[in-house]
């Protein structure tokens, strides 16, 4: 029954994309053009809209999927641009990153997304418009240029950036001899590139705890989301340097592992 209900929710979500998200995107872009705003201002307006969508989708999820969220950690952080990092577990993590960022006053974010997201109706177009980085999964050497361009835009527009250092979703089963049992091993290069290009950006670390899943979670498992409570821990890690980037990520991943273990053990 949960699976059938989940697919009905996906249908409603599709209608929202068509009749709410697309018109609002076109309205903001056209209005910006009519007022003769610079491309930088246009990007910022659409970035704010993306954050609004994230919060709006969360309200949709609360209503139709009966989901809840609990926050831990820092509730107040300096009003400054951030490099936002998070563990990655489900297809809905973007929504929880958006609401966690908005909760501490971060509204203008350029994201690092997989290249396939470029084909996502409306959402992919909007992130292309604001200058988010779309990376391949084939170790394309041009990915570093894409990250650098996104960082340049963020620096120019006083915006934050967001990256999942794992590079893909953790599917619930650790690899043999893995250091961590609840997250994938982080990949340093993308994060280090941002730290190098954005030396004055602080680091905001988010831990997303979805509880226990038996498999990787995408929209095809939407029934698994019904009635679920997600815990989000927010940690301001301050400013770091390229030389300290690996140590900081290691500290954050130990934090993730500890927080996830505590939460999941409490359900046992």
Give a verbal description of the structure.
It is a single chain. This protein is of the alpha/beta class. It has a single domain, classed as Glycerol-3-phosphate (1)-acyltransferase (3-Layer(aba) Sandwich), CATH 3.40.1130. It is 46% helix and 16% strand. It contains seven helices and seven strands; from the N terminus they run ααββαβαβαβαββα. It has a seven-stranded mixed sheet, sandwiched between helices. Strand 3, helix 4 and strand 4 form a beta-alpha-beta unit. The longest helix is centred in the first third of the chain and has 33 residues. The protein is globular.
Summarize the structure.
This protein is of the alpha/beta class and 268 residues long.
Outline type: globular
Report the total helices.
Answer: 7
Kindly report the CATH topology: Glycerol-3-phosphate (1)-acyltransferase
CATH architecture: 3-Layer(aba) Sandwich
Biggest pleated-sheet summary? 7 strands, mixed
The tally of strands reads 7
Low-pLDDT parts are none
Share in β-strands? 15-25%
CATH hierarchy, class: Alpha Beta
The secondary-structure class comes to alpha/beta
The end-to-end span amounts to: 25 Å
Helix content: 40-55%
> Can you give the mean pLDDT?
91
Query: What value does the Rg take, in angstroms?
Result: 18 Å
Question: What is the ordering of alpha helices and beta strands?
Answer: HHEEHEHEHEHEEH
List the domain count as a whole number. Answer: 1
What is the topology, as strand order, of the major beta sheet? Answer: 1-7-6-2-5-3-4
